[in-house]
Structure formats: C-alpha cells, structure tokens
Amino acid sequence: MKKLGYIFALGLLTLLASCASVKYNTTKMQTQDFGQYKTYGWLPPIDSLSKNYFNNDIARSNILNTANQELESLGLQYSKDNPDVLFRYITIVNNKSRLVYHNNGGMWGWGGMGPWGFYRPWGMWGMGWGGGFSYPVGSEKFRYAHVIIEALDRRTNQVVWQARGSSEIKAPEKSINKLPKVVSGIFKQYPVKGK
Questions:
Q1: What is the mean pLDDT of the chain?
Q2: Whole-model pTM?
Q3: Angle formed by the axes of helices 179-187 and 57-73, to 10°?
Q4: What range does the domain containing 157 cover?
Q5: CA–CA gap between residue 186 and residue 57 (Å, rounded)
Q6: How many domains does the chain have?
Q7: Residue 96 has pLDDT above 50, yes or no
Q8: Which residues form the DUF4136 domain (predicted)?
Q9: H or E stretch including 48?
C-alpha cells in the first residue's frame, strides 16, 4: 500500500510539472481601453541577438497562424491599412545554469552529517525529496526560451500590452512544435476576452 501511495504521488508530481512547463507573465497600460481596438496588423518581428531556434519559416508560421486565430477569436479583424493596434513578437533563447543537489538520505531534519563530515543537528542544508539533507554539488547548463508578444497603439506608437511565455528547451524541434500552445497561452492574458 505504501508503494502504491508513492507511485500515485510521483504521478501527480509529474502531471503538475508538465502543466507548469510554460510560465506566463503579462503587463499592460492600466488606463487603456482595449475594447476600442477593432482592427489589427503586424509589425516585423524584432531580431534577437541570442541563440535563436525560432528564426525559421516553420516557427514564424506557427507563431503568426496561431496568433491570427487567437486575435480573430477576440473579435479583432486583420487590416493592412491603418489598423487600430499593431502586434509584434520577439523570441529569445538564453543559456542559463542551475545548481545540482545531492541528497545524503538522512532523516527529515533531525541531524545527520553535512557535506564535509560536520554534524548538522537541525538540517541546516535543507530537506530533499524523500527526507535527508540536500546540498549543492555542482551546476548544469540549460536553455530557456521566451516568446514575447506586444501590442502597440498605432496612433500613439506606444506599447500598451505585453505578454511572455517562457519555458526550458530540451530539443529545438519539440519547442518549435510547441509554439502554437505557447502563443495560445499568451493570448489568454490579453485584456479583452473572446466573444
């Protein structure tokens, strides 16, 4: 029974981790009336100086096709001539690093040995998953991608809304295929809801 509980907890943790794989952030001009925008257009994407996996036709198509569908579902119509609001996107891929921890398998915070053999009676190194003390043993590098979409008021040329979807990249091809889901999530942050 204990093993079944452990398997259930591990499955739940995996499910939660997969749901939280993309983080979204947004900001807007608080006094802006977004309901006034009826038509939209596109500005060219902003070039990123970072390593960019999304500078190709497939990625651009995934971003723009999904964005157009989302904008139409919000009640906006595409217009080449004098649109009310202009959108543009930016893609950024950063190299990052994070600490890697070791768990010595001791009891939950009730003493044990620290990483260099010193006695730690109150678990000063923190608790790891499943008990014991964990402490950093090194670092690993990984890539983190951001897709940013901005809305500019055409009359004032000011950015009035910006939203970002961010996630770790493990394989560039999978990240490109995941772009429609990320863009849909970004437009869920738009201040006007669909009709």
A1: 77
A2: 0.69
A3: 30
A4: 23-95+143-187
A5: 20
A6: 1
A7: yes
A8: 29-191
A9: none
From 48-52, 66-70, 76-80, 139-143, the region with the lowest mean pLDDT: 48-52
Q: Which amino acid is at 189?
A: Q
Q: Would you tell me how many other CB atoms lie within 10 Å of the CB of residue 41?
A: 18
Which neighbouring-strand residues pair with 107? Answer: none
The CATH code of the domain that includes 174 is: 3.30.160.670
How is residue 91 written in tokens? Answer: 């893609």
Task: Return the SS3 of 2.
Answer: helix
Residue 172 has pLDDT above 70, yes or no: yes
Judged by DSSP in three states, 1 sits in coil
116, two tokens = 């260099």
The number of angstroms, rounded, from the C-alpha of 64 to the middle of its chain's C-alpha atoms is 18
**In this predicted structure, what is the pLDDT of residue 65?**
97
- Report whether pLDDT(103) > 50: yes
**pLDDT for the residue 98:** 64
Asked whether residue 150 is assigned to any structural domain, the reply reads: yes
Q: What pLDDT score was predicted for residue 55? A: 83
Domain assignment of residue 29, yes or no: yes
Task: Give the separation between CA 105 and CA 91, rounded to whole angstroms.
Answer: 41
In a domain, 155, yes or no: yes
CB-count exposure of residue 71 (10 Å: 0-12, 13-18, 19+)? buried
